[in-house]
Amino acid sequence: MKKNDIELLSPAGNLEKLKIAIAYGADAVYGGVSHFSLRIRAGKEFSFETFKEGIDYAHARGKKVYATINGFPFNSQIELLKKHIIKMAELEPDAFIVAAPGVVKLCKELAPQIPIHLSTQANVLNYLDAQVFWDMGVKRIIAAREISLKDVKEIKKHLPEMEIEIFVHGSMCFAYSGRCLVSAVQMGRVPNRGSCANDCRFEYTLYAANEDHSTLFRLEEEPGVGTYIFNSKDMNLVSHMQEILDSGSVDSVKIEGRTKSPYYAAVTAHAYREAIDDYFENSFDANKYQKELHTTKNRGFTDAYLIHRPFDKSDTQNHEYALSKGSYEVSGLVTEDEKHFMCKYKTYPGDEIEIFAPIGAKISECDNEIGKIYKKDDGKYYVSFKKILTDTNKELDSVHSGNTNKIQLPSSLPYLTMLRVKNEEEELCSK
Fold it and tell me: Which domains are seen in the chain, by residue range?
């Protein structure tokens, strides 16, 4: 396998995150306008106009954009769906991501010029199902998260021309590749139409009842086990990228997370970009990538099902907490003029703030009246401010999130560079 044969595919929940994913190493991104997408809340971040802007932005940089039309429509929605397919095709995405066989057929009829990628919601695990969709004109399958690498190889052996995409990072669902009704039953929000309420992440109190004499008592929690009984850990396969790439059967590795933060979009793209590039340069270092990925908020990590089968281990669930934890906060994001940043957390004069820059960024050291940019022995660059100055030269004692003033940098930094600091709560917990 050649370096250009493997695609790194990142989530694009909105236009800013699309740009960030590309800046930090993604070859392609996926997202959509809310209609008929399985991330309705993320889809609302895009209008048809901004999604087209994102497509043009990506294409200008030699990157691809895949549009999600992977919901499961009711009969009453089919005419609206037809109009949506035609309108999305006019934006010229590089592929449609589709789940339902009927929608595959409809896309082929209404927009034959747009390649079809089969959503993971179609649950393809074997070459028989893959063959059916290949015969329907599907160019790529996004395999079910439950698939093994052995089965990926088998599909590729039977269908060498079909592209195979696999998830390597992000949230895992308690149900079979998202086929869940818990949220629909409890909250009226239908997961398979994009509005999952994540009921599986809640902590539940368990009771035992006897209907004959109406006895009801609460079950006591076993210390250290907890009652997050449906809560899956997040997938993290970066340590297995060597095995994945060695297989020669995977065409695209996909990161989940359209509703996650811009920082998540940056770090995951950056880590997996480095892992892929280092693999081809024979300098693969799993610890380096894991260290970065652990700075993002997560529910704990598991390598899920691709390498090991579920019955081989029991570490796929998080029984302790549902709230994500991360070791860093984004302090600021560098603006398009590359001379300022927008505050996302808080910044005081004298703070040492790490610079987390896009792939291939060039950073110059400096020391002036505003502050200094310097490189430490750990090989990373940092910035420290002597003054907090707005773009109108107003001096502030400090700047906090919510402040809409652009803040001057000591020297230019690349657009979309992130300034980050250790999470104070995490630091206290480690002491």
Answer: 3-176+231-312 (3.20.20.70), 328-430 (2.40.30.10)
